[in-house]
Each structure stands twice: as structure tokens, then as C-alpha cells.
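Field log, afternoon session.

UNIT: design team B
ACTIVITY: writing a sequence onto a fixed backbone
BACKBONE:
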């Protein structure tokens, strides 16, 4: 933007004409003239010192205005005098309003002359007291403002009796900051902000700015460079690729999930059923099929169809891949530019609230992916926000991700840590999210993550641990669990860092759960092998039980496993199409019986042939063409229903007592068997027997040991014709024999289906 030329001598001459002679007056006016020069030059950090009401004088700055008038209710208009040719005017308050305590007045600016001239009438932005309090600034500086989003950003409000929008932004190293937007034709000269001292916060209340108007901040750096930035605390942003922030009116949504939230407060998710349907909202289902006019369903449309769909499949939770605003759709939301703004790709913030509310009322929890590990380098967003490395580390050895081309937050800076901690609370407070899944935790924990020797800086003890990030993670978890009992935080952490899901007071990081990446890699590798070779890879399935209770695990078959050339889950399976589908059904039943919570990516119920593509919807057509694919989804629904019914499968996930091997060593036949049980003090016992045969050979007369006698029945069989299987089963009531087997006094003789997993529950003991 161009600024009109300033001439200090002209300003002083004009100022002198207004005030009259006198040495004291000349000194005062000389200082004022310097202030006006700096204001016009765009380098004044306190425009309220110049503009607005000062005693009986009122000054205003309107570049390009030919005339201005001062309008005070009950008095005649006062013609204002031009005191600087760039558009600074001054007028005197009428004597009739000398006792007015509020000081509320209006200004009128005329642009042009004659019939083509245009007049604008407005309340003076520089007549208002600051909208940010000293306690808010103190807490922010300490990094302890839990509800920071209520202070910074753009807030519609009535201030000094006038309706408008209060703007506040943190830019401590800026020379000056201006608000630009639709209402001032994006002219940064019109609305310079004031610095609130050492806090680094800049503030301005602008009367008349309405909801829906777009805005950004124009920042003059200490190097005299102009940067145009979106608001880090914006609650809504333009539809990408546009990047402006949008003023919101605040939420008018009326929630209907009170019962859900009440139940959540008393919940103990670690000892409850939890199976998760992970989603990328933009590629789940589209309107109009795959034609040119088709588009992803929006928040409101999803609210109509998603709760019923997830309920029919029996999942307890959905997990949304990042829904905070992001400039590049190909990042899937993992490169965030607007941490407080739900992406506008699918609607407005209240649309997201309606979607989450609908899921809650259907009894489905909502997990949202959260990305505090890094942010993109896009110049319009957080990168070098005020001309310096503000949100990120200045040293690229600590401030840049070599793999992802992104920047790393400076977790040791109070204000940055506060920005992120408050953001975690924001999603739970404002959108009733039940859990945050924190992406790329390992990259936060290690200073040498994906770096060669010499490319990283050791911590103060000479180690590779990022101590500042560790403290930040602990703080997030302590604060969120403390303020929202029943909510949880889940870590995607791929290393052996100890105590990830242990409480902070016990020396852990404080997460509620951790993704079991080792289980995922080992299990998929095992199933990739042809059954004839699986005997040599038997340990890939049994190894995970050595550490299965070291953390509170979620077993993930996530989006990362069906993209970037890895193929779909079905494509990973060996054999012909029947064997591929049988392997996939066996994988699901094995996973659902395994200790830990379950997560699958959307489309798992369709068994698609091709890997996930974020640019199109799921292969829904496959259900119309091949019935056996629909039956995979039917099996998933059955697994979820049985899973939720049997406490043995989830009530003791966190302790070894909830699990017992029956057969772990039959590698020659690729058979495994184990018991799940509640096994918790003071609760009735419940058991489930899981037996897996991972070869296409039917195992007749296969005997398994049982801890005690009684009768059992088969309740899940992945070879059932209902799911597309061949029908090898164990029908009716199965009676134990008093015959020692597997070191147990009792045993059952069973027929194991090919590439099948069966679940049995006791009838009588």
C-alpha cells in the first residue's frame, strides 16, 4: 500500500496556526507535530496519544479526506481544521457538551467535492479505552491465560456504548500494527493500533465493524518491512486459497448434548469400550457422485447422515483428521494456518458445532487431530509474524523440520506455550470435542528427530530430549484433564519414550492413550506374507504382548497405512480375492480381540481395492458391484456390537490380568489362542476365547486348553457365510472335556476355519 508523503515542516506550521503563539505551547505543539509525523509515516506505536479526544481537542486521521466535521449530540457540527496535509484534522469540542462524561461523538469525512463527493459518518475508534485488561496481559505474559481466545483476536462487542469489533494481536517486535479490512478498503493508514506496553499486545476497538467482514493485520517490522498477516486467533477464515480472517458474531448455536457431557464427566474411558472410525471429512462422501459438480459434504450435511452411519457400524467414536484451517488441501490439515478457525471448506463454526452435537446425541464421541508440533512457512500466517522468529525458534536447528519443510514452535516462550495450551482448551470448551489426538509427538520430544550429527543442538544437560517440549506436553495434559474430566488426549508417538500415557504425577507425559505403532507395523507385515511363510514370522504377532500393558494403547490402522503407494488394506493381503477378503476379516477380528482400543480409517468397512485419495470420495460404488465387500462392513458392525457387549474385551485393557495365552507357540500351523477376561477386583468374571488360524487350511479336531470346565458357544466366526466366508464353524453348545491340554485341566476340541478367527464365550461353568 502507498502512503501519502509527509512533511514535518508543514505539520508544524499547521499546528502552530491552530494553537497560537507562546513558548510552552510551541514546545507542546512541536512534540505533537513529531507524533503526527510518525503517525502519518506509519511508525507510531500509540496512535491514541495523537488521535481521539484530548481535553477539548479532538483529532482524526482520514487519508484522502477533503473535509471533516465533529458531531456531538445536542450541538451544532464543528468544522475540523486540516493540521497535516496527509489527512490529520483537529476540532474543538462544543462548549455545550463540556460536561459529557462518556465522550461519545461521531466524525464525518467528506471525500471529493461537488456531486461526486462521498460522505462517511462513523464513531471515532480512538475515543475508547483499551478492551484488554491488565490482568489479561499479566497472565498472558506468564503463559497462564487459560481462555486466551476471549481476549486476543477479533470480538464483536459494545464498548463505551458503541457497537463494533475489538481487535487484539501479539506482535512484540513490531514497530507498528494496523488493522486492514473490508470496511477501510484495506488501507493500513486508517486504523493503526496501540501497543499495550511490554506485553507485546496491540489493541484497537473499531466501531461499526460487522460480522462477516474480512480483515488482516498490516505489520511494520523493526527492519521497516511491511508484512500482511492473518490473525493467529481468528475464529473463521476465508475459503482457501483466500487467506483473510473473518470477523464472527460469536456462536449462536444452542447445544443439545447436555446428557452426553454429563456422562462424559463421570466416564473412565480407559476401562470402557472404545472403537474409533477415523475420517477425512473432505473425502468421505460427496454430493452428486464423482461428477464435476460434486463436492464434499459440509458440516450441516454430515450432521444429517454421519451419526446414523457410524451408529450402524457400532463405533463408539469418530476421529476427524485436522479440521483447523489450513492453506493446502494436500496436507490433509496437518499444516495449520488458523489454529482457532475450523476450516471453512465445509461451512462455518456453528456448522461444526451442529455436527459434533448430532454425533453426541447419537451416543458417539468426537476426537479431533491436533497439530502443535509444527506449522507451515506460508508468509501470510505465523511464520516470522512480526518480522522476527516469534512463534518459531530462530535457530533453524531447533526451529525447522527438515522432512516436512515446516517450522517448530518455540515451546520455551511463555506466550507461545499459552497460545497452544489455550488452543487445546478452546476445542474442548467451544466445540465440545471429547479428545485430542496429538500428531507427531516424537518429533516434539527429540531434538535430533530426523537430523544428522551437527544438525541439532543438545539440551542443557547435553542430551537429545527437548525439555521445553516435554514440559509443554505435560502442561497441556494436566490442564485439559483438570478442566475437563472425562475428556482425554491421545499421543501419536512412535518411539519407546517411557510413560507416555502415565500421569504426570507419576513421572509420565500425562496422555490418556498412545497409538501402538509397533503393533501396527508388525501386524501388517505379518499379514502381508503368504500364509505358507507365516510360520517364520509368528513372532511378529506375539512380540507385541511383551509390551502390551506398558502404555494405554490404541491399535491404529490409520490413513497413513493406505496412502502414498502403500495400497489399501485389501491390497496388502496375499492370495486371490477370496483369500484377500478372508485375511482382511481375520485381521479385524484379531484386532478387536487384542488388548487395546481399536481405530480404523474410513473405508475399512468397504474393503476398497485402491488406496485412499483425498481428492475424491470413498469407493462407495464397490458396494453395489460386489456383495462380498458389503459383508466386510457387516462383520465390522458385528465385531463392534459384540465388543461393546462383552466387558472382557475392554474392562481390563490396561493390566496383564485381563489376558491369558492359551497357545502362543504353534507357528507351524500359524494358530494362536488367548483368553480375555475382566479380572478386576470386585467385579464379576467374564471371559472370551479368541482362536486364530492364519492359513487357508481347515484345522479339524484342534484342541485348546481351558482353565475350567463348562460349556462354550461360538459368537463370532469370520468364515461365516454372512460375512462372505465358506461356512466352517462350531455350531451349538460346546462342552469342555476333562482332558489336560496346554497345561490346563480342561479342553475343547474345535474346527478352525481357513484364514479365520473365532470368538467363544462361556455359557455355564
Amino acid at each position: 500500500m502507498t502512503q501519502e508523503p509527509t512533511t514535518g515542516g508543514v505539520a508544524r506550521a499547521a499546528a502552530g496556526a491552530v494553537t497560537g503563539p507562546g513558548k510552552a505551547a510551541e514546545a507542546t505543539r512541536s512534540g505533537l507535530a513529531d507524533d503526527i509525523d510518525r503517525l502519518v509515516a506509519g511508525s507510531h506505536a500509540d496512535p491514541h496519544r495523537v488521535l481521539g479526544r484530548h481535553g477539548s481537542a479532538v483529532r482524526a486521521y482520514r487519508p484522502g479526506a477533503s473535509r471533516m466535521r465533529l458531531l456531538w449530540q445536542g450541538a451544532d457540527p464543528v468544522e475540523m481544521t486540516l493540521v497535516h496535509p496527509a489527512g490529520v484534522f483537529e476540532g474543538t469540542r462544543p462548549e455545550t457538551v463540556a460536561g459529557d462524561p462518556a465522550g461519545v461523538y461521531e466524525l464525518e469525512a467528506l471525500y471529493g467535492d461537488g456531486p461526486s463527493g462521498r460522505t462517511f459518518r462513523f464513531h471515532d475508534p480512538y475515543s475508547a479505552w483499551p478492551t484488554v485488561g491488565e490482568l489479561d496481559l499479566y497472565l498472558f505474559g506468564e503463559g497462564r491465560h487459560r481462555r486466551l481466545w476471549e481476549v486476543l483476536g477479533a470480538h464483536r462487542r459494545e464498548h463505551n456504548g458503541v457497537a463494533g469489533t475489538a481487535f487484539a494481536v501479539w506482535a512484540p517486535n513490531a514497530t507498528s500494527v494496523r488493522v486492514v479490512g473490508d470496511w477501510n478498503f484495506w488501507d493500513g493508514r486508517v486504523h493503526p493500533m496501540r501497543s499495550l506496553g511490554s506485553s507485546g499486545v496491540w489493541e484497537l476497538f473499531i466501531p461499526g465493524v460487522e460480522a462477516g467482514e474480512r480483515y488482516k493485520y498490516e505489520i511494520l517490522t523493526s527492519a521497516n518491512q511491511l508484512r500482511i498477516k492473518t490473525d493467529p486467533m481468528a475464529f473463521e477464515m476465508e475459503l482457501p486459497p483466500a487467506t483473510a480472517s473473518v470477523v464472527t458474531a460469536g456462536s449462536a448455536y444452542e447445544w443439545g448434548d447436555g446428557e452426553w457431557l454429563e456422562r462424559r464427566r463421570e466416564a473412565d474411558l480407559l476401562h470402557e469400550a472404545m472403537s474409533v472410525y477415523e475420517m477425512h471429512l473432505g473425502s468421505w462422501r460427496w454430493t452428486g457422485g464423482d461428477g464435476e459438480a460434486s463436492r464434499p459434504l459440509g458440516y450441516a450435511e454430515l450432521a444429517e447422515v454421519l451419526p446414523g452411519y457410524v451408529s450402524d457400524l457400532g463405533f463408539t467414536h469418530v476421529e476427524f483428521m485436522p479440521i483447523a484451517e489450513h492453506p493446502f488441501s494436500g496436507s490433509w490439515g496437518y499444516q495449520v494456518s488458523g489454529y482457532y478457525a475450523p476450516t471453512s471448506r465445509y461451512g462455518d463454526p456453528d456448522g461444526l458445532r451442529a455436527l459434533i452435537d448430532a454425533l453426541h446425541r447419537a451416543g458417539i464421541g468426537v476426537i479431533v487431530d491436533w497439530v502443535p508440533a509444527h506449522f507451515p512457512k506460508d508468509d501470510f500466517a505465523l511464520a516470522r509474524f512480526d518480522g522476527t522468529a516469534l512463534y518459531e525458534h530462530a535457530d533453524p536447528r531447533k526451529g525447522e523440520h527438515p522432512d516436512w519443510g515446516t517450522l517448530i514452535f518455540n515451546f520455551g516462550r511463555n506466550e507461545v506455550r499459552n497460545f497452544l495450551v489455550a488452543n487445546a482448551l478452546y476445542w474442548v470448551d467451544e466445540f465440545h470435542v471429547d479428545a485430542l489426538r496429538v500428531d507427531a509427538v516424537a518429533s516434539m520430544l527429540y531434538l535430533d528427530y530426523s537430523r544428522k550429527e551437527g544438525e541439532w543442538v543438545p539440551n542443557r544437560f547435553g542430551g537429545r530430549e527437548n525439555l521445553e517440549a516435554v514440559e509443554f506436553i505435560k502442561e497441556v495434559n494436566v490442564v485439559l484433564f483438570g478442566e475437563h474430566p472425562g475428556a482425554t488426549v491421545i499421543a501419536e508417538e512412535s518411539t519407546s519414550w517411557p510413560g507416555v500415557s502415565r500421569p504426570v504425577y507419576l513421572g509420565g507425559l500425562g496422555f490418556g492413550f498412545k497409538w501402538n505403532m509397533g503393533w501396527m507395523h508388525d501386524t501388517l507385515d505379518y499379514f502381508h506374507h503368504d500364509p505358507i511363510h507365516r510360520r517364520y514370522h509368528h513372532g511378529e504377532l506375539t512380540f507385541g504382548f511383551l509390551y502390551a500393558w506398558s502404555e494405554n494403547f490404541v491399535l491404529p490402522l490409520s490413513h497413513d497405512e493406505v496412502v502414498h503407494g502403500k495400497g489399501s488394506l485389501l491390497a496388502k493381503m496375499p492370495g486371490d480375492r477370496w483369500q484377500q477378503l478372508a485375511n482382511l476379516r481375520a485381521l479385524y477380528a484379531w484386532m478387536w480381540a487384542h488388548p487395546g482400543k481399536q481405530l480404523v480409517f474410513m473405508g475399512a468397512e468397504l474393503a476398497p481395492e485402491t488406496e485412499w485419495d483425498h481428492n475424491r470420495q470413498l469407493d462407495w460404488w464397490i458396494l453395489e458391484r460386489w456383495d462380498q465387500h458389503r459383508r466386510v462392513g457387516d462383520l465390522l458392525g458385528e465385531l463392534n456390537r459384540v465388543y461393546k457387549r462383552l466387558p472382557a474385551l475392554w474392562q481390563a485393557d490396561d493390566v496383564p490380568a485381563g489376558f491369558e495365552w492359551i497357545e502362543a507357540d504353534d507357528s507351524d500351523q500359524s494358530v494362536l489362542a488367548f483368553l480375555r477376561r475382566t479380572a478386576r477386583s470386585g467385579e464379576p468374571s467374564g471371559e472370551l476365547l479368541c482362536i486364530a488360524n492364519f492359513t487357508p487350511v481347515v484345522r479339524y479336531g484342534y484342541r485348546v486348553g481351558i482353565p475350567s470346565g463348562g460349556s462354550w458357544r461360538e459368537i463370532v466366526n469370520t468364515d461365516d457365510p454372512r460375512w462372505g466366508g465358506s461356512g466352517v464353524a462350531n455350531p451349538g453348545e460346546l462342552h469342555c472335556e476333562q482332558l489336560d491340554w496346554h497345561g490346563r485341566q480342561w479342553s475343547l476340541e474345535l474346527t478352525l476355519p481357513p484364514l479365520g478367527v473365532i470368538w467363544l464365550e462361556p455359557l455355564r461353568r
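LOG NOTE: The CA atoms of residues 101 and 682 lie 70 Å apart.
NEXT ACTIVITY: expression trials, pending approval
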